[in-house]
Every structure is written in structure tokens, then in C-alpha cells.
Amino acid sequence: MKTRIPQGFRFEAEAVAIGASAGGIDALFQLLQDLEPPVEAALVLVLHLPEQHESRLPQVFGHRTKLPVEEAQPHAPVRPGTIYFAPPGYHLLVEGDRTFSLSCDPPVLFSRPSIDVLLESCAEAYGDRLAGMVLTGANEDGARGLAAVKACGGLAAVQDPAEAQHDVMPEAAIRAARPDFVLSLTGLRSLLHTVVRR
Question: In what order do the strands lie in the sheet with 130-134?
């Protein structure tokens, strides 16, 4: 596990799947700031939200980035250069043909959408062209999914638990996945810029 990005490091991602829970909005604001076109990868995000509330994440983040921000829709293609959020109350998956699907399967670790479900489906769809990131959170969702990213040859990164607002999720991901990188949000932002550009 690296705590710095080596000089000359390269990884060309077709998609970046990111999961966050408690404290995740602030973390994502920092992670996504300054990201602007051209971006050659899709960004697919799960942020734990109460199921009964309508999500306003596309609007909130759409005002803070120069990339298009959308709520993922079933059967829609996953397009590079776009930020997608999982809708509340559904598991979000990416299929082998690079389209989205939604599932009403039971919550995973009390969460629907589940970070594990997203990461596992993205690992199958993108293999070694996927970067997965797990950020702050108060449960262990994302640990199993990030291990799947690694097993399929993808790049795995975790927010440094020491700076996370809630360290349970990143610590679980580190134990389960032995990620390539454990970085501050500033470091993860640099890594994100590296993997989405050519």
C-alpha cells in the first residue's frame, strides 16, 4: 500500500467507482473540486442516503463541477466524462454492456444503494480498467467490493482513516482489499486526475 503517488505513475481508467457514507458529502466536494473536461472515464458514485428522501445530489454537485452530473437511470449507457449518483432506495449496478441497472434486492450492511454491489458489478464490467475508491463512513460497506476490484486487476484506493470524518469504512476496506493506495483527500484528488486523463 502506497501513501504517495509515485512519479510517473499511470493508470488509464474507463470508469471510477466511488463509495462514501457518513461525512461523504464534504469528502466528495473536496475530491471532485477542480475536475473539468476533458475526462476520459465515467465516475459512478454511491453515497448512503435515507431511502425515503428524494436525492438532490445531482443538483448540489452540478453547481460545484464543470462535468455533467446525473442520477443513474436503468438501461442508460455509462458515458465517459459524466458523474453519476445512485438513486436512493435502489442498488446500482453496471452491466457487462456498460449500461446501468437498478435492483430492489435487500439492503447490504443496512444500505441500499450498497457500495459493495456497485463495486462488484463494476469490477466484472471493467476489469483492469476500473479504479475503485472508498471514502469516509461508519460501516463496512465497500470493503468486499474493493477487494473485488483488486481481484479483477483494477486499481484500489482508500481515504486515509486518520483524516476521515468516520474511519470505520476506510479501515475495513484496507483490511479486506489491501489497496494500492491509502491517501489523504488531496492525494486521492491527484490520483483521480491522473487516472481519468490520457
Answer: 69-71, 83-85, 42-47, 15-20, 130-134, 155-159, 181-183
